[in-house]
Every structure is written in C-alpha cells, then in structure tokens.
Amino acid sequence: MYIGQMTKDILKWPRPFSPPVVILEKRVVAEYGMPSTHAMGATAISFTFLISTMDRYEYPFALGLTMAVVFSTLVCLSRLYTGMHTVLDVVGGVLITALFIALTYPAWTLIDHLDSASPLFPVCLIIVLFFLCYNYPMSEYYSPTRADTTTILAVGAGVTTGCWINHFFQLVSKPPTPLPIIQNIPLLTVDALTLGLVKFTVGIVVTLFVRQLVQNLSLQVLYSWFRVVIRNKEARRRLEIEVPYKFVTYTSVAICATTFVPMLHRFLGLL
C-alpha cells in the first residue's frame, strides 16, 4: 500500500475525467489515480492468503484459486464502476502487486521467524514505518493520501507488534505439527452464532474505546507541544500533527485488537 500510494503522488496521473465518468467517491477525488491501491490490496490479500495456506490446510486448490481471482476481479471492476480509476490504473496495480509478491515470497518464512524470535523486531519495524510516513512525498495541495497511508502502515505495525507480544509472552498456543492441518468447519448453530456475536461486540466496543482515548490524548499532547488551537481542522492536517497522532492511534488499536481483546475473551470465558 505504501508503494502504491507513494507511486500515485510521484507519477501524478489524474483520475478519470467526468464526463464521461461519474465519480461516486468524493472523499478521495483529490488523490491521483495510478496505480489503483484497491486493486493492489485486493490482489495482495487474496493471493497471499492462497499461497500461505495451500501447504498448511487441505482444500481444493482450484477452489481457492477461483475465489482469489473472483475477489480481486470484483474489487478491480468496482473501481471502474465507481469512476475512480481507468483500466490502466487497475492493470498497473495488479502487475505491481504480482511483482511484489514474487520478489518477497522467499522472505516470508524469515519474516515470520523474526517476528516471533527477535525482541528488537517490533521496535525496528515501528521506527522504520513511522519514518516512511513522516517522509511521505509532499503534494502541492492537501489530499487524504498521506493520512490513509499512515493509518495503513500503523495498523501493520500494530498487528505485527501484537503478534510479537503474543509469541514472546506465550499468550497463544503454538500451532500443531506436522502440516498440513486438517480442519473441519464447525456447524453454524444458534449457540455458535450467539457466541460469535458477543465476541464481536466486545471486541468492537473495546477497540473503539481505545481508538477514541488514544486519539484524544495524542492530539491533546501534540496541540500543546506545537501550541495549536484545539479542534483546529487545518492544524490537524499539518505533517507534524497528522502523522504522529494517526500512527500512535492506529498502532494502539491494532495492538489492542490482536492482544488485549483475545485476552479479554479468555477472561470472560468467551471461548
């Protein structure tokens, strides 16, 4: 996502002109178009999920491949339908992601081992990702690109840190061996559905509470540090305020979701 967002602000290719396109998403109309980060995200999520599970679980590969292709294709087509991208934007996003997956695939296992073994990994990751956000390419006018990129990288940093905390402090059980693991899909009973809804509600409430708390605290500290009037919308968009408060907020949210919420579920007996 960082590569895609940064490429947009470097190439500065405009979004499709209207008419003949009717743009349905006004919020991001100020962003540039090439490549489509929605196409990149959909392709990355579906195909990395397929690649990382096909040797660990037993399921028809053709079915998994079909689902990955259908999911990524639907997202790509939606970007054309909403008038946000050209066909070239979408194709460019898919090709960039395919190249990125091919280049990084040999390092996936190494990254997993670093995440669970090295005590310095989450610290280094947070520093590097924050540095990338703070040094994001500047634009001639404000657009939500930098803020969205910071949010995405912060969530990535938080999830990785949360997984590291779970492994380092042994808050989760180790996966069984050997692979592949044969899993039976449990029946969707009333009890299972009720339990799922309760766990979901608890998780959402706690996560939203943490988001609001950390966001307010971080903004208060930054406003005070830079002597800015509170609730100043323009000040919120300043680099030295926007990047730190979003990074701290969504890193905290992701750590909470991956570490504290499962602990709370176990404490409440929601297993």
Write the layout of secondary structure elements.
Elements: H1 2-11, H2 37-53, H3 61-81, H4 87-104, H5 108-117, H6 121-134, H7 145-168, H8 190-225, H9 233-236, H10 239-267
The main sheet comes to: none
Low-confidence stretches: none
Total of DSSP H or I helical runs spanning 4+ residues: 10
The SS-based structural class is mainly alpha
Please write the string of helix (H) and strand (E) elements. Answer: HHHHHHHHHH
Q: Rg, please?
A: 21 Å
- Number of E-state strands: 0
Mean pLDDT: 84
* Terminus-to-terminus distance: 34 Å
Count of structural domains: 2
Assembly context of the chains: single chain
Helix content: 55-70%
Shape: globular
Strand content: under 5%
Keywords:
single chain, 271 residues, mainly alpha, 10 helices, PAP2/HPO, transmembrane, transmembrane helix, PAP2/HPO_sf
